[in-house]
């Protein structure tokens, strides 16, 4: 085997998994990693020029918006190890056959990687069962939390600044810590642990790498003000599945009645836009939110869904301009309030990022 080239794709968690894994491998190898969230094929073409002979490991994100994207990545740089974090509804508007089409597009990694390599998938993600794994001639390893897996996290607990959990490695139970919240990030860490362990990294190297990982900007970042206001900054994007971010809001705001969600549009949903926003809103209505504020266009259906499932109308407000949203938020910048701010995958993203910075200055 030459230098391990690891490609990471999936509907969510790519950048965080990449940062975790690169940080761990960096404890043992000279490691090349993709830049921030630069994961389209143009970036991959540039990485091909930038990887040096001296690099001992390569960790890349392979992003996808449509059929053929991942195939193009693999033609540029063929990975030996592949990670498919999950199969979700992100960009579902580009696929006529919905989730099956997304799974088929993600499966381009399986066909495009070294056939003698190793594929890592989630045993817990039910949509990953749609991946075209049977034709793969290499080795398949699984990660999970809620059921049997080759690498399984147990006894997940949250601390003041992250999460602890246990993983059994070589018949011994090991405790790991990650400096971030959310079950979604435990899954990301499991992929990083599984790959690095497979490549021979020690438990000490894995622990150090996870602790020192570079945190992706505005992805479930906990930001606290001097006035005891907490902002869960997830303003980089809004995925069709809001559950991971909302669960962090529930945990961080546990016992607090003043939990406020500020949510932007979920983009690239096509004909599914209304139904997905309504379904996610229906879940939000059962979470005991103090207020739900939505911004954009289709995000108004989050409020409709939430109201139908029990959140009072007076607690929901939709905005189409940032100044009005800021004016409403300024009324709630009081000690003890916990905010979740989620952006979207295009222009709204930048606007809600600016809202977070404004809140931090204002508070």
Secondary structure elements and their pairing?
Elements: E1 5-9, H1 14-25, E2 31-33, H2 41-50, E3 57-61, H3 69-76, E4 81-84, H4 98-106, H5 108-112, E5 118-122, E6 139-144, E7 151-158, E8 163-169, E9 172-178, H6 183-198, H7 203-211, E10 221-224, E11 230-234, H8 243-252, E12 259-264, H9 273-284, E13 291-295, H10 300-308, E14 316-319, H11 322-329, E15 338-342, H12 347-362
Parallel strand pairs: 1-3, 1-4, 2-3, 4-5, 5-6, 6-7, 11-15, 12-13, 12-15, 13-14
Antiparallel strand pairs: 7-8, 8-9, 10-11
Portion in beta strands = 15-25%
Give the helix/strand class.
alpha/beta
- What count of helical segments does DSSP give? 12
Label the overall shape. Answer: globular
Order of strands across the widest beta sheet? 2-3-1-4-5-6-7-8-9
Q: Unreliable runs, pLDDT <50, ≥5 residues?
A: none
**Percent range of helical residues:** 25-40%
Mean pLDDT: 93
Number of strands: 15
Q: CA-to-CA gap between the ends?
A: 54 Å
Radius of gyration: 20 Å
Describe the structure.
This protein has 363 residues and is of the alpha/beta class. 34% of the residues lie in helices and 22% in strands. It is built from twelve helices and 15 strands. It has a nine-stranded mixed β-sheet with strand order 2-3-1-4-5-6-7-8-9, covered by helices on one side. Helix 9 links the parallel strand 12 and strand 13 (291-295). The radius of gyration is 20 Å and the shape is globular. The termini are far apart.
Labels describing this entry:
363 residues, alpha/beta, 6-stranded mixed beta sheet, 22% strand, single chain
């Amino acid at each position: 085997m030459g230098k391990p080239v690891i490609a990471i794709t999936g509907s969510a968690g790519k950048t965080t998994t990449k940062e975790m894994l690169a940080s761990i491998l960096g404890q043992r190898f000279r490691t090349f990693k993709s830049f921030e969230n630069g994961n389209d094929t143009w970036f991959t073409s540039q990485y091909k020029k930038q990887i040096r002979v001296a690099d001992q490991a390569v960790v890349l994100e392979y992003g996808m918006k449509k059929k053929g994207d991942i195939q193009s990545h693999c033609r540029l740089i063929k990975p030996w190890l592949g990670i498919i974090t999950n199969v979700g509804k992100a960009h579902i508007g580009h696929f006529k056959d919905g989730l099956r089409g997304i799974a088929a597009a993600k499966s381009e990694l399986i066909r495009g990687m070294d056939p003698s390599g190793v594929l890592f998938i989630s045993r817990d993600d039910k949509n990953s069962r749609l991946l075209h794994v049977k034709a793969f001639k290499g080795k398949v390893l699984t990660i999970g939390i809620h059921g049997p897996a080759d690498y399984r996290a147990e006894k997940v607990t949250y601390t003041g600044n992250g999460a602890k959990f246990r993983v059994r490695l070589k018949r011994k139970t090991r405790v790991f810590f990650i400096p971030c919240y959310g079950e979604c990030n435990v899954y990301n860490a499991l992929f990083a642990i599984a790959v690095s362990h497979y490549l021979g990294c020690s438990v000490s190297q894995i622990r150090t790498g996870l602790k020192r990982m570079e945190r992706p900007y505005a992805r479930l970042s906990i930001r606290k003000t001097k006035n005891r206001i907490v902002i869960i900054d997830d303003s980089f994007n809004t995925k069709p599945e809001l559950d991971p971010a909302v669960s962090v809001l529930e945990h961080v705001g546990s016992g607090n009645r003043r939990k406020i969600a500020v949510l932007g549009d979920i983009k690239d949903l096509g004909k599914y836009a209304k139904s997905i926003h309504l379904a996610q809103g229906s879940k939000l209505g059962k979470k005991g939110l103090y207020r739900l504020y939505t911004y954009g266009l289709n995000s108004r259906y989050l409020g409709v869904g939430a109201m139908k499932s029990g959140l009072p109308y007076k607690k929901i407000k939709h905005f189409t301009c940032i100044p009005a949203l800021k004016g409403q938020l300024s009324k709630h910048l009081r000690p003890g309030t916990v905010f979740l701010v989620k952006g979207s995958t295009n222009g709204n993203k930048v606007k809600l990022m600016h809202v977070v910075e404004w809140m931090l200055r204002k508070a």
